[in-house]
Amino acid sequence: MMLSNKSLKNLLSLFVILLTINSAAYCQSSLLQNIYGRNIQSLNGRWNYIIDPYEMGYYDYRHMPFDQSPSGKGGFYDDRKQKDKGELIEYNFDLSPNMKVPGDWNSQSQRLELYEGTIWLRQKFNAAPQSDKKYFLYFGAVNYEAHVYLNGKKLGMHKGGFTPFQFDVTGKLNKGENFVVVKADNKRFPDEIPTVNTDWWNYGGITRDVLLAEVPATHIADYKIQLAKNSLTRIEGFIQLEGAQKLQSVTINIPEAGIKQTVTTDISGRAAISIPVKKMTYWTPEAPKLYSVEITGATDKITDRIGFRTIETRGQDILLNGKSIFLRGISMHDENPLIPGRLRGQGDMRMMLQWAKEMSCNYVRLAHYPHSEEMVRLADEMGLLVWAEVPVYWTISWQNAETYNNAEKQLSDLMIRDKNRSSVIVWSVGNETPLSDPRLLFMSKLVAKARSLDDTRLVAAALEIHREGNSVIVNDPLGEKLDLVSFNEYAGWYWSNTKDMLNYKFNIKYDKPVVITEFGADALAGYHADDETRWSEEYQELLYKNQFKMLTAIGGLRGMTPWILVDFRSPRRQHPYFQDFWNRKGLISETGKKKKAFYTLKSFYDEMQTKYK
Ligand code: GCB
After folding, report:
1. Which of 164, 206, 248, 582 is deepest in the core (most CB within 10 A)?
2. Pocket test for ligand 1, best of 198, 396, 495, 583 (most atoms within 8 A of CB)
3. pLDDT tens digits along 473-501
4. Domains and CATH numbers, the chain
């Protein structure tokens, strides 16, 4: 075949484009452990934004991405360059409105409430980069796809709405003024994680902190300092340095526990640690002791607050520091109902966790995706055990290799971020995924991945049940590979009612601790009726009471996280009077009013607390 000059040129451009696409996707650097322990400059605040439903800042009129075209010209991100050239520009960040970052856009402007698409956001900041330091631009989370540009140059792209990512910007910062532009796109696609169909609001934007971190050229990039698997007498983990001076002596100092040990990193900057523990106060929800841990190398030093505890299962028991516990939990979304929108800071987070504590909880399920690092650190501090989850939810493209890689990346990033948090005891690889062979393969690979990254915590998933006659059967083959029997069952709501739900019996195949991940009923706060009337507080209350009767008949019951702490926004919830885009299964309303069932669950938990003393 003869190729004309023109088609050769076209082919060549396509090749360049493909290369750029690939490198753009991978140019993030690996995550810094303990970003909040670093010398950081916050880029939070008011960011100017441009709504771009047709993505005209990204594609030219032939729908060719500007930043992937051979000339590399154009795009909103190139703000200044274009202005300098005096080209026609139909946008202007300075004159555009602004929104709070961190903060989803849906809650900040009426016209964005249901928006799914691209918004460009820009922030200006001053920097004083030093030549002997490294700099990272860090994002706590952007939902869903983020393209990031610094001073008009693309840094890269990240997919996944709930996990952190960062770019090495050493040598790319101006002394003085800089500007960062983010193209955030929250469109849903079938092959993504999560997929198109969920029961929560698809909040878009930069929903978590944006930070500029400064670290020494050779720095402590990562570390794990935790009790060894099932051992109360040994700390195990590693230290990982990045930079030119990889061979160093690094000291781990936990003054309050009388621990001081020095290790030497190898040519890859890594050192394993194994430290005997003599006397230590172990972390529990009742006494969430956190130790100050100092890691000091020749070029860098970092301090963290870490709790030490073990978690394991034995038969049908869950042992925390060797002692059998009952998980008095509640599920929650990363959403403040009072805004309503994503949690924007510590105040919001404390409010949520405090509500859980008021209900006598010792455990929370942070559903259905990774919540923020701050939230997990608060759980550490406030004494709440955590079930952490990735958005492998309902129907995923089980046979698409890219989809799997995406799920695995989100799981790994969550585990890397939170591996030093004593509150986290369960890694969940997904929720209500329907049985099939491709799904079993996908989920089993995720379980194996989780185990390869961490052998000190439990691995679980929220499974589905099926019913035969009056039997509620749990026999999902994935259960073989998990540490807990966890499933969602909506007796009394999606099947049966408050009257005949008690006729059902559970038939569970696995001899493992049973921790129910969901049950619940919708109730509109303030709507009172008899306990057979759906949507009433009384119906929800009776459903909870009957659930306790059903569930306590399960011999291996060791915990639960009913659905859910507070009413939450969902586009699936259409009833104009009772729902109006709210899932009403909360025990607390969107105005913070406690429903009757809040107190019902609290008294059940108070009883369980005395039982498991
Ligand atoms: C479920 C899902 C949860 C939903 C809930 C409901 O099983 O896991 O995300 O919100 O049911 O209210 O139907």
Report:
1. 206
2. 583
3. 999 999 999 999 999 999 999 999 999 99
4. 25-215 (2.60.120.260), 219-307 (2.60.40.10), 313-611 (3.20.20.80)
